[in-house]
Amino acid sequence: SLCWLDEFADPTTARKLYTAAFPLVDITVVPDDVIVQHRRVALLELIQKHIRQRDLMGLIDQLVVLLVTECANDSQITALLNYILLTGDEARFKKFISELTRRMPQHRERIMTIAERIYNDGWLLGMEKGKEEGEQRLLRLLLQNGADPEWIQKITGLSTEQMQALEQPLPEIKRDPWIEY
After folding, report:
1. CB contact at 8 A, 73 and 39
2. What is the Cα gyration radius of the chain?
3. CA 164 to chain CA centroid, nearest Å
4. Where are the bilayer-spanning segments (predicted)?
5. How many distinct structural domains can be found in the chain?
6. Does residue 174 register a pLDDT over 80?
C-alpha cells in the first residue's frame, strides 16, 4: 500500500490518532499537584505554566523534588534552563541557578555544567554575530568612502545580493540583555 498509515503496526489505531483533531490542554488551568504527577514532562509543564511570573523562586521546591526523583534527563534540564533563560526573567537566572544547586548539592556539577554550556553557546553565538556585524560595518564604511564595489566583491566573495544589502543604511545597534557591556 502507498498509504503511510498502513506502515504502523496497528493501522486502525494510527488512522484514529492521525485523522482526528488533537485535544489541546490549557496547562495554566491544571493544578500544580496534577502537573507534578506527569513524571518526565512535569518539569517542562510546570515551567511553561509559570514562566511569566516575575519570580520563579517559588517553584524551586517543586523543581527540586522533580529533579531529585530523576524525572528529567540532561537534555530536558538543558531545555528547561534554556527556556527559563530565553523566556523568563534573565536578571534572576543566576540567582535561580544558585538556589537550585544549593538545594541539590548532589546535582550541582550536572546543573552547573549545563548552565555553563548554555552560557558558552550563547557567548560564542554572540561573538560570531558581533564579528559578522563588524565586518559588514567595515565594508559599508569602505563603500561609503569610495571603495570600488567590484573590488570589495572580488576580495570578499560576496554575492550581488549581499553587496546590495551592504548599500542599505546601517541598522540601529540593539544591545543584548544577557551581555554585560
Report:
1. no
2. 24
3. 32
4. none
5. 1
6. no
Q: What SS3 string covers the chain? A: CCCHHHHCCCHHHHHHHHHCCCCCCCHHHCCHHHHHCCHHHHHHHHHHHHCCCCCHHHHHHHHHHHHHCCCCCHHHHHHHHHHHHHHCCHHHHHHHHHHHHHHCHHHHHHHHHHHHHHHHHHHHHHHHHHHHHHHHHHHHHHHHCCCCHHHHHHHHCCCHHHHHHHCCCCCCCCCCCCCCC
Q: Evaluate whether residue 86 is within a structural domain.
A: no
pTM of the full structure: 0.51
Q: Collapse the DSSP code of 157 into the 3-class scheme (helix H, G, I; strand E, B; otherwise coil) and give the result.
A: coil
Residue 64 is assigned to a structural domain of this protein: no
Least confident of 16-25, 135-144, 171-180: 171-180
Q: Measuring CA to CA, which residue among 73, 66, 21, 19 is closest to residue 47?
A: 66
Kindly state whether residue 126 falls inside one of the protein's structural domains.
yes
Domain-embedded: residue 4? no
Domain of 128, in residue numbers: 118-166
Angle at 95 between CA 92 and CA 98, to 5 degrees: 150
CB 104, CB 111: distance < 8 Å: yes
Nearest to 101 by CA among 63, 69, 70: 63
Top pLDDT among 34 and 85 is at 34
